Hints:
The complex is a heterodimer.
Chain A: H1 7-23, H2 26-34, H3 38-52, H4 70-83, H5 90-103, H6 106-117, E1 123-126, E2 142-146, E3 149-157, E4 167-173, E5 184-190, E6 196-201, E7 210-221, E8 225-226, H7 232-238, H8 240-244, H9 250-266, E9 268-269, E10 272-273, H10 278-306, H11 314-337, H12 352-367, H13 377-387
Parallel strand pairs in A: 1-4
Antiparallel strand pairs in A: 2-3, 3-7, 4-5, 5-8, 6-7, 9-10
Helix pairs in contact in A: 1-4, 4-9, 5-6, 9-10, 9-11, 10-11, 11-12, 11-13
Chain B: H1 7-23, H2 26-33, H3 41-49, H4 68-81, H5 87-99, H6 104-115, E1 121-124, E2 140-144, E3 147-158, E4 165-171, E5 182-188, E6 194-200, E7 206-219, H7 227-262, E8 264-265, E9 268-269, H8 274-301, H9 308-337, H10 347-358, H11 365-377
Parallel strand pairs in B: 1-4
Antiparallel strand pairs in B: 2-3, 3-7, 4-5, 5-7, 6-7, 8-9
Amino acid sequence: MDNSFSSADLEFQQEVRAFFKSAYTADLQAKVESGEDHKSVAIEWQNKLNAKGWLAPDWPVEVGGTAWTPVQKFIFETERCDAGAPDVVPFGVRMVAPVIFTFGNDEQKKRFLPRILTSEDWWCQGYSEPGAGSDLAALQTKATKDGDDYIVNGAKIWTTYAQSADWIFCLVRTGTFEKRQQGISFLLIDMKSEGIQVNPIHSIDNHHSLNEVVFENVRVPQENLIGVENQGWTYAKALLAHERTSIAGVADSRRWLRDIIALAEQQTNYKGRLIDDPQFQTRLSDIEIELMALEYMELRVLAKLSSGDTPGPESSLLKIKGTEIQQALQELRMQTIGAYSGSLHLSNFQNDLHRAGSNSRRAYMYGRAATIYGGSNEVQRNVIAKAVLGL
Amino acid sequence: MNFEYSEEQNLLKESIVRWAQDNYSFDQRRLGAESEKGYSQDHYNTFAELGWLSVPFAEENGGYGGSVIDIAAIMEEFGKALVVEPVFPNLIMFGGLLERSNNDAIKAELIPQIIDGSLMGAVAMYEPQARFDASNVATTASQAGDGYTLNGEKCVVLGGADAAKLIVVARTSGDQTDEDGLSLFLIDSDASGVELSAYPLMDGQQVADIKFNDASATLISELGAATEALNQVLNIAHVALCAEAVGIMEVLNKTTVEYTKTRKQFGVTISSFQALQHRMVDTFMSAEQAKSLLVGTLVELTDDRTTPQRAAKMVNALRTIVAKNGKHIGDEAIQLHGGMGLTDELNVGHYHKRMMMINLMFGNGDFFQHQFNQVAYGS
């Protein structure tokens, strides 16, 4: 057992640290924290990452990736969070791109991947449906062949940022088989196509990020089908474990914790500093100790990946614990700030605490989604019960 | 980065597994645990023959020169086998303090006897008024000629019922709760002025309360400067107990999962109920958390760059999570076994009782979390 990075890793750490220091400027930070104009601010940041060649570390080198080891990816993620820089918007870079470069044809790779790197194409995810949530294989949106096209009818739901997306990647039903997972295909659809309607869903964080996307006789060229017809479920599933290994969010949670401690050093309680209140300290350490455990759970998984293993059901464990900790931190941040945490404002703040309070209210409310999306935590428990405990 | 036990450590673990399979079934274990002594001297002698008792001691003292990771490897397997023989109080506590003594003659005499299994020792440190505060020491030592005279009372001395020799923490200067002013003394347990009352704990170990009335003892530390050695030994002790607890957690979870796959109710195995499946996933996660923090603590404690503050943070975090999760896992194991979980004939309750004792040794969960808070957020 040993905990240390190689000297090459330490050098890499210095390089990453220097990059974030120069690239994530105070000006950009202010724009990110204002929460306004989400898309253009995100594009500005992603273009900086892309100029450095670091937007898509997970991709193969020949299409723009980095060939980093799992340890390097971990270092990058940790440094990003320490610098306070935002994560990339995942739908293009992390969700659809791996499907395209793993299962797509050369034409599709050439057509879509470069435009994801330049953020020219903005993607959204069309998996869930009004009748298919955790039970994704119940999906009903239908694609039927018509000449060189598919005709798509149905509805997708919980589609984050569909309102600003250029493309949507969808799981659609193209056939009926005994096993529901068969007969599903992976289809890329231009959001400008005729017959698509985006209906906003206003969420409890008083913000518009979620949508319902309705397809009415939408014509999609067959060349937009990924891989083989009726095999889409396999493609989507292959990438899920991949996605969950980064879902623990340890580095982000560390930053939240530091932020809460800093706030609690300034806040007062019972005529003293909040941070000195034993009851508060215990609430804080309840979370911090779990986070320390999660950090080593993640490192253990990483060390396994480094030695050539593929991510297995332990990614479900990281997802459950990671999201529980995120939610606990969101709650404690509201509690730490106090009454300002009820504020609905998104601009024109009275003071910094007002801004922090309003942001933490929003993070808490939207944060409820974390234990629901990516396969609800109950579904993750089913996965562990079956795959690890053999129940 | 590597979080696995080494090849040598795995060999050591396997030798314990093999020994337990052949010699330490639940019934065989009970023979020793329920004897008057509370353990089997034969088993203990075997540990010595197999070389396990040499692991924590430095090579210059005739030991194997093992690290805290080697100790954890042994203790994890001892946890799984629910070993009741007093390796922990004798090796980790008594041997640990002895090895840090400044008296080379005594070390040269006694450490080989620990390694060959012929000497049982115990550390008398906690006092009835002190709860878990190791520096709250009212027992005094005053100089008398070449030696010292001890007066005071120690409680719940682990391994105390059977120990031939005791290391006693006594105050040689300062007020009752001062961290400084503590010294270590060696004394035979049958010496005049030593009054020993033995009793069993719920996990089968035999402990003692010990009174000292003008008992003559030998100073084996720098005068008034025992705190550092005590803290070093306690740090290793904490990790050793947590490694044992992690072994126990694994057995409890495994036993419970297997039981639910055979127990039928309403015409089906109870493992098919989602309500129970999710509970077993939660106990599995509890064990993984503890194991991860154990591994983290081991790598950080063996890393030169780790500051004392960071080490204290890790150790207290580990003991806090072992206390919480150990209780969670043990309670659930009993609950999921139903009425059978309450019976003495099933091993589940015995594992749970050992876990509960671990979580009362040198502090409980609240105590360790409080310590953590002091280190992490104290001004």
